[in-house]
Amino acid sequence: MHPDPFQLYCDFLKGRPGRCVFTGQDGCHAFATEDEIDATYGSRRDGHHFVWLDTRPDLIGFVNDDHIDTLLTAGRIASTFCEMSGVTAYSRDGLKTAVLLGATRMQKVLDLPAPDGKVPADAIGTLPLSLRWQFASSALAGSVPHALLVEKMVPLGATVEDGEARGRLLVLARRAVGADLSDIDLEAGHWADWAVHSAERNARIEEAAEDLLDQLIKDRGRLQ
């Protein structure tokens, strides 16, 4: 009998290690859900989130760090965000995929059936693992107000460079005014271009500031 994916995911979030679904290695502290790979304490990738850039294997469960390295090297996944340090990579494809991921998640929640404004618990059970876990405590009472679930999807405190958050807000804003969602892919690409250029500009500014500081220190030394 296969273990319940949701229970495995809960074990992962509680810090319990598991066996890699790709390699069979034990003691893993990263997890592949339906739409991303997350890592927690015990992994050298602690706090990092990875998105798939190609077809995701039909596997859900723990992942070891070496396999994450292999996937990164092959360009199959991209690191897009870290809970401790924010945005971790400025791969255009990775950032665009993060926007689309957030957009898809928000659409799934907005499209949940809600008779009388409330979403049945079994409908919440159809969502990706990360969202099921996010809504788990609310679903204990049975049906949940749809508005509450949508409110929980609003990424409070997210930075402007957070692609997944951008995707959620993009869909929410458009659905709020009845706008078309057909160009979300194009919008995600435009935003990824902006994020890459912004990161490159900030890196040049930081480099120039460091060079200026080094020069000031050298000039001060010559004057003494």
Overall description:
With 224 residues, this protein is of the alpha+beta class. The protein is 51% helix and 11% strand. The chain has a domain at 5-82. A five-stranded antiparallel sheet has the order 4-1-2-3-5. Strands 6-7 form a two-stranded antiparallel sheet. The longest helix is centred in the last third of the chain and has 40 residues, at 184-223. The radius of gyration is 21 Å and the shape is globular. The mean pLDDT is 87.
Total number of beta strands: 7
Describe the largest sheet: 5 strands, antiparallel
> What is the topology, as strand order, of the major beta sheet?
4-1-2-3-5
Mean pLDDT: 87
Helix and strand sequence:
HEEEEHEHEHHEHHH
Continuous helix count: 8
Q: How much β-strand is present in the residues?
A: 5-15%
Backbone shape: globular
Q: Report the radius of gyration as a whole number of Å.
A: 21 Å
Low-confidence stretches: none
**Percent helix range:** 40-55%
The chain-level structural class is: alpha+beta
Q: Kindly, what is the distance between the CA atoms of the first and last residues, rounded to a whole number of angstroms?
A: 77 Å
